[in-house]
Amino acid sequence: MVLATIDPTTRLAASTSLEDLETPCLVLHADRMDRNVQRLRSRLDAMGVSLRPHLKTAKSIEVARRVMSSPEGPATVSTLKEAEQFAAAGVRDIIYAVGIAPAKLARVAELRASGVDLVVTLDTVLQAQAVAEASRQSGTRIPAIIEIDCDGHRSGVRPTDQAQLVEIGQALTAGAELRGVLTHAGDSYKGGGVEALRLYAETERLAVVEAARILRNAGLPCPVVSVGSTPTAHHATDLAGVTEVRAGVFVFFDLVMAGLGVCQIDDIALSVLATVIGHQREKGWIITDGGWMSLSRDRGTGKQAADQGYGLVCDMDGAPYHDIIVADANQEHGIIAVRPGSNARLPDLAVGDRVRILPNHACATAAQHETYHVVRGRSHAVEARWTRFGGW
Fold it and tell me: Where does the secretion signal sit in this chain (predicted)?
């Protein structure tokens, strides 16, 4: 694995600290991030499967360089904006893992013409025909990967639908390139414990392996067999027949992943730094400037055993207060309170004091910000600012 060093253009003056930052803002604990990446990479290396990280959570060149196995990739993206940004930074091996809209194929062709091996995703004959036609018009075979529905969660072709699989494959090879199959075990986010997560992982594997078998038996190529979700990547016990694993939120983790048992609270690498701006003592509230515009409105832990509200509140070192959550949020106001049913006490925080709030969903929270403020260990020193981008 290639670990990038801090880019000197992002390094800050030694005096910059968390206390100096405007709030709310996004803090990235680099040590935790590096540990999370190494944990999954080591696991997959031992199973003989490559990691194609999903960069939709990070949306950052600096983070991508610390997650990919080389500066050229491989990588997974969820928007063409991501593909363009990472391509401009030298990434050359990219899967765009969202169903392709025919109107976007001109942008795909432009990226491929610049030397990027960009693969599109689809699950219908109509899309396959559009990709084949765009290939003929551009004079180059655009590679596509067929999405497989392994659990009825969202998009994809059921692996039992042999006729549709073969028809899509044949439509692609009429002008484009069939690169393989991929799936995403969305049901793994339902949790259920270790054994349930292992079952989700095996169901995910069997779905794409069977789809690949069907295509190959029909005389069609299927070099790539790709699976991907953070819960299944950490619980698969057998990846026979799989060529790569895509996962994304594992880089940072979040409270949903902790609630599923995929990580621990102290593995979560992202937090939102917020400032206390008031009190409602008779209500048991502390008010901060960290509302849902900085935390997101994601309430992904609401159906888990521990409902974390809009986020789990920590001190400035990143250590969680016992049973203190962001119980409610308005656009620019966060309401800190004791978790319902707990006999914990609110921390003694004055106006101007600061807290760090762990997110329910790292992707959604990070999307509210333009910059990662990078720290290490228990230090408050901000050693770098890493730019992140948004858009489509």
Answer: none
